[in-house]
Amino acid sequence: MEPASPYISSGAPPAGLSRRLAGAQALRNARAVATRVVPARGEVPPAPREADEELVRRSLAGDIGGFEELVRRHKKQIVNFIYRMVGDFDLALDMSQEVFIKVYQALDRYDPRYQFTTWIYRIASNCAIDRLRRHAPPTVSLDASPRPGDNARTLQIASSDQNPAESYEATETMRKLETAIRRLPPGYRRLIVLRHVNSLRYEQIAAVTRLPLGTVKNRIFRARAILRREIERPEPLRRAAGKAAGTGVAP
What we know:
Layout: H1 17-22, H2 24-36, H3 52-60, H4 64-86, H5 89-106, H6 116-134, H7 164-182, H8 186-196, H9 202-209, H10 213-232, H11 235-244
């Protein structure tokens, strides 16, 4: 049995709280907020003025403005995470709306001793993994051990000082990288996206995924090695491998 999440408070909610959050009108309001707040591409979220925990408190008190600010503050990161997981921006927008509905419905069980960001990534991560496992594309095998020196180079690619030829090569490499990420098994893809797209620390990723810290580091190391190998593989071999890889190793 999976252990209880440390991000869910074990105490009983205040009287009437669950009824208020479950009310049809309150849920309609939350859905309207989750649908209305759509991050523009390239939009930079404003600097937070209130702590997330205070916004949760306001939301639980019936202030829909508190929940709207939570959505505005976190939706861009959640959409970006889901998009990198599922590879479809419109689908990522739809899924992010459902994520925030789930967040709203569970607010009375959130434990403010822990980071709200980690909690919301947990919910988004579970939704993305469920979607990928229901609609599983071909994935790369992660059975092979990393080669010596695989971790010596990073996955950082672009430079502002590149000439046109270098820029084209970097663009092609990035395209190959994004394709390779989408072919990772869902559990490994989640780790790479959380680390290299959403820039979460290893400790945060361990909290989101409920994996031991050492396991997180080891699996990210293995996934990086496979990504690098996929990028360096000639195109015809990569296409052939994609047709042959029907399953992968998921954590």
